[in-house]
Amino acid sequence: MNEKDSKRKSRTELMEGLVILYFVVCLFIVAMAQQYKFMTYGQLSILFLPLLVGFIFFEIRQYKNPQAKRRPSLTRTVISCGLVSFMIVLTVLYNVGNLFN
Q1: Can you tell me the distance from the alpha carbon of 20 to that of 28, in angstroms, rounded to the nearest whole number?
Q2: What is the pLDDT of residues 18-53, one digit of tens each?
Q3: Where are the alpha helices (DSSP H) in 1-101?
Q4: CA 27 to CA 95: how far, in whole Å?
Q5: What span, in angstroms and rounded, lies between the C-alpha atoms of 87 and 72?
Q6: What is the crossing angle of helices 49-64 and 3-36, to 10°?
Q7: pTM over 0.90
Q8: What is the CA radius of gyration of the chain?
Q9: How far apart (Å, rounded) are the C-alpha atoms in residues 90 and 81?
Q10: Which of 8, 3, 6 is nearest to 65 (CA)?
Q11: Cβ contacts of 71 within 8 Å, gap of 6 or more
């Protein structure tokens, strides 16, 4: 393994660790918000938007990589990215709608 591959692998592991840490922090915030009622469901949904956007980029990167171990099919990529995009749009519309109520 050359130096470039090892740097890429360590950077990938770091990003995976940060994503997992962010997810755990989001779950902790959701648990605290449920207990103490300091955030609405709309505000909680915004916490998870970066994870949804990150999933889209990850899925597209996996599809474009021909050497990926578990390369998804085009159909799976389109369906999963489409559903996640739909959830992002619904979340944003819900929160923008709550601004005017």
Answers
A1: 12
A2: 888 999 999 999 899 889 988 888 888 888 899 889
A3: 3-36, 41-47, 49-64, 74-99
A4: 20
A5: 21
A6: 150
A7: no
A8: 17
A9: 14
A10: 8
A11: 62, 63, 65
